[in-house]
Specification:
single chain; 16 helices; mainly alpha; about 5% strand; two-stranded antiparallel ribbon
Length: about 375
């Protein structure tokens, strides 16, 4: 085709219609755009990630347990006393279990030796508070709290240091080998218990409450122990700090990302192994803190205290969802409330109430209350 023929064909091609102001009024931009030039969708369409809706059903279950127990108990004052005791017990278990659920979520390590950090924290508290007898015997609340917090801080430091050694010597050689992890960490806990017996002896050691934390607050006809109120407050502070650290700090975001998809975090150039060590030490320190709180809750400690609490810890983690901190929180509260309510209403049932609760939850949600992706 010649050049003149091409020019003639272009002149003969139809021109796009130009609408007057009246004709174009009320029409959208897409209607005024020639069909050949019209985009199939908006440039930002499909780029927005939908926000996941928060699941309130487990919280509704928690509220239902609280309300259902009220008419069964029959007395409002008794119900309030049992509820506060259950919340205190649940929050102490949460403090112990929160570190373990992070360890499993990020490191994929089944640490059945977690109890040794609980026991170490409790026994360190007996030594620290025994050395501060003048402070604990004082009627001053500030002196008593100073002694308790000093014991907690030293116990956390000791448990964290032991956690570093435990991870390097016992856990690191068996990464990715779950059966070996179970066996070697249980062996580590047994060795740790024997070392505790060498240092503090095999007998039960009393861990009495400081003078100002003994007794109860009386609200109407309800009697609420002072120490349980303190345990609730400490547990809520730990929960709030964990939420802040996991959601508002870079390390926390890396931990959450590692829980969701460890391989992706490694592919982005972050050294996930360093996070392993930090999380393991932090989880061990939380176990030490929980050991102090549990020892004061029982007012005595034994070398087997960690092994005794281990069962409750794993029940809580399974109920909440492996690797889920918020699930661990809700699961711990459910376990604490159930143990106290059934202990009052049907003492024989209390022996297996938490197992029954776990089975019921798993029948409802096989992966736990708040399952974590890829776990």
């Amino acid at each position: 085709m010649s050049t003149q023929a091409r020019r003639a064909e272009r002149r003969a091609a139809p021109k796009p219609a130009v609408l007057s102001g009246e004709a174009s009024a009320g029409r959208s931009a897409s209607e005024l755009t020639p069909s050949g030039d019209r985009a199939g969708y908006s440039p930002t369409e499909g780029l927005q990630v939908p926000k996941a809706e928060f699941d309130f059903k487990p919280l509704l279950l928690l509220g239902a347990v609280l309300l259902a127990a009220w008419p069964l108990i029959g007395s409002s004052s008794t119900w309030l006393t049992l509820s506060v005791a259950g919340l205190a017990m649940g929050l102490i278990i949460f403090v112990i279990a929160s570190g373990l659920t992070l360890i499993f979520g990020l490191m994929d390590v089944l640490n059945f030796g977690h109890g040794v950090f609980i026991a170490l924290g409790a026994f360190v508290a007996t030594s620290v508070m025994g050395g501060m007898a003048d402070w604990t015997a004082s009627e001053s609340l500030m002196s008593n709290l100073a002694a308790v917090f000093a014991a907690m801080l030293i116990a956390m430091a000791a448990a964290g240091a032991l956690g570093l050694a435990f991870e390097r010597v016992i856990v690191r050689p068996v990464y990715g080998l779950h059966l070996k992890q179970i066996l070697i960490t249980m062996g580590g806990m047994i060795v740790g218990e024997e070392l505790i017996k060498v240092i503090w002896g095999p007998l039960q050691i009393p861990l009495p409450l400081p003078a100002a934390l003994r007794g109860s607050f009386v609200i109407g006809d309800a009697s609420i122990e002072k120490y349980r109120v303190l345990a609730v407050a400490i547990g809520l502070v730990v929960f709030a700090l964990l939420l802040f650290a996991l959601n508002r700090t870079k390390v926390g975001l890396l931990i959450r990302a590692g829980v969701q998809d460890r391989e992706m975090v490694e592919s982005l150039g972050y050294r996930i192994r360093r996070l392993f060590v930090v999380v393991f030490a932090a989880g061990s320190a939380l176990a030490g803190l929980g050991g102090v709180m549990w020892g004061l809750y029982q007012q005595s400690v034994t070398p087997q205290i960690g092994a005794q609490v281990n069962v409750l810890i794993f029940i809580v983690i399974i109920i909440g969802g492996l690797g889920s901190t918020f699930g661990c929180f809700v699961g711990a509260l459910l376990v604490g409330l159930m143990a106290n309510y059934t202990g009052y209403l049907a003492p024989k049932v209390a022996l297996f109430s938490n197992i029954g609760l776990m089975v019921a939850i798993l029948l409802w949600r096989p992966q736990g209350l708040y399952p974590v992706t890829n776990r």
